[in-house]
Amino acid sequence: MLPYALHGYRTTVRTSTGATPFSLVYGMEAVLPIEVEIPSLRVLMETKLEEAEWVQTRFDQLNLIEEKRLTALCHGQLYQKRLKKAFDKKVENPKRRPNQERVHSRWTENSKERSRQKLGIYQKKGK
Fold first, then answer.
1. Among residues 22, 20, 24, which one has the least CA distance to residue 12?
2. Residue 10 near residue 30, CB atoms below 8 Å
3. Where are the domains of the chain?
4. Relative orientation angle of helices 51-63 and 65-90, to the nearest 10 degrees
5. 7: which residues sit within 8 A by CB, 6+ positions away?
6. If you average pLDDT over residues 12-35, what whole number do you get?
């Protein structure tokens, strides 16, 4: 069961890269197990090629793998920017709270008052 799950994971297009992990590693899309039993057009085209032509086609695909990887890297960076932008919209930035300074100043004034009371320095305004 695990091999089928791994095959599905490796041959599914990732949103972050826009490509399958298999194609980024091997430079071509994977042949599905069913395509071996019931040949698809892609498999039929490869079987009709002579060995020299197939080798040349594969060599060309491998030469383009760096371009695919670079494209996937750029796609991943754009995806991360989009995610960050969406996350930043939903999360409140604590630095932008309008009442933060007032709350902080009240807290420090109150803590100063309490410490004066504990030390016996506090004097009532009426005396």
1. 20
2. yes
3. 2-94
4. 40
5. 30, 33
6. 83
